[in-house]
Write a structure and sequence with these properties.
binds magnesium ion, Hydroxymethylglutaryl-CoA lyase, Aldolase_TIM, eight-stranded parallel β-sheet, binds 3-hydroxy-3-methylglutaryl-coenzyme A, globular, PYR_CT, alpha/beta, metal-binding, HMGL
């Protein structure tokens, strides 16, 4: 049987917007986060404290974190690849910091400019500092289902990186399909490899929708008992270090599916659709959520 309740982590303001070529001003990001807060998310990935030379769109992260209207109990997360990022996230009042590694060596080099082993060493002080300051610690494992540079990623590599993230004391670990190549049985095999190394209730599925497989993969993960999923309002995004990759699965589509399955999310679908319409209008294009567009056309 499927879980009765899931947590949907909204990553649009970070994973979605990080890839936009046009500058999205801080006040637009703040308005988006505020709308998502009002829609009922318990966890919103709002910022990324990475090098502005690598990801210019995230350079306004401190301003965004300072400007949002925080709702008590909601976790606002920020990416922190190293101690410099951690200090910035701490100063900005992030509740949760996210270290991000990869299951493929090639992607680790392209995305964070170091090997997997070096990345774990770099994350150690971040993990320690997070604990010291009482912040939640989450890890993201990119290219767990396939890599744009090396192709196949062995299940053993996923298990290895998940185990290292566990050893760092992570509260939650994301298994990420960076380029959206997984199909449902593959999704289950990879999630099983992760389940072998970490508490199932701390694992999340982070599916990009490049090949239109994300909802099917989420369903496949639900069948295993996974209860945390990432999605991006209006299907925003892509990854700057994964050419051709599209956004995360659209939040509206995930909430619509969960509603239909009778799985509780705590999220108001109409409010997410409105937030999606707001950001799509700003970006000057039609949103990428099928459910969102259908509901807007009603
Ligand atoms: P590096 O060049 O090896 O680092 O980059 P460095 O320590 O040698 O520093 C170089 C310069 O960057 C220095 O500045 C530092 O101050 C600065 P300079 O002296 O040249 O003027 N710097 C920073 N500035 C601001 N904040 C920081 C920071 N760190 C260094 N935290 C580094 C290494 C990791 C910093 C770099 O590679 C980087 O920023 N990468 C970002 C990659 C990224 O953001 N990718 C997208 C997010 S991951 C993702 O989307 C995947 C995910 O969604 C899951 C999935 O779908 O797979 C999570
Ligand atoms: Mg991603």
């Amino acid at each position: 049987s499927l879980p009765q309740k899931v947590k949907i982590v909204e990553v649009g303001p970070r994973d979605g917007l990080q890839n936009e070529k046009e500058n999205v001003p801080a006040d637009v990001k703040i308005e988006l986060v505020n709308r998502l807060t009002a829609a009922g998310f318990a966890n919103i990935e709002a910022a990324s404290f990475v090098s502005p030379k690598w990801v210019p769109q995230m350079a306004t992260s401190a301003e965004v974190m300072a400007g949002i209207a925080r709702k008590p109990g909601v976790i606002y997360s920020a990416l922190t690849p190293n101690m410099q990022g951690f200090e910035a996230a701490l100063a900005a009042g992030a509740h949760e910091v996210v270290i991000f590694g990869a299951a493929s060596e090639a992607f680790s080099q392209r995305n964070i400019n170091c090997s997997i082993a070096e990345s774990i060493t770099r994350f150690e002080p971040v993990a320690k500092a997070a604990k010291e300051h009482g912040l939640r610690l989450r890890a993201s494992v990119s290219t767990a289902f396939g890599c744009p540079y090396q192709g196949e990623v062995p299940l053993e590599s996923v298990a290895y990186v998940v185990a290292r993230m566990r050893d760092l004391g992570c509260d939650e670990i994301d298994i990420a399909d960076t380029i959206g190549v997984a199909t449902p049985r593959k999704a289950q095999a990879v999630m099983q490899a992760a389940i072998g190394e970490f508490r199932i209730d701390g694992l999340s599925g982070h599916f990009h929708d490049t090949y239109g497989q994300a909802l099917a993969n989420i369903y496949a993960a639900l069948e295993l008992g996974i209860t945390i999923f990432h999605s991006s309002v209006s299907g925003l995004g892509g990854c700057p270090y994964a050419k051709g990759a599209t956004g995360n699965v659209a939040t509206e589509d995930v909430v619509y599916m969960m509603n239909g399955l009778g799985i509780e999310t705590g999220i108001d679908l109409d409010a997410v659709v409105d937030a999606g319409a707001f950001i799509s209008q700003f970006l000057g294009r039609k949103g990428a959520s099928r459910a969102g567009n259908a509901l807007l056309a009603k």
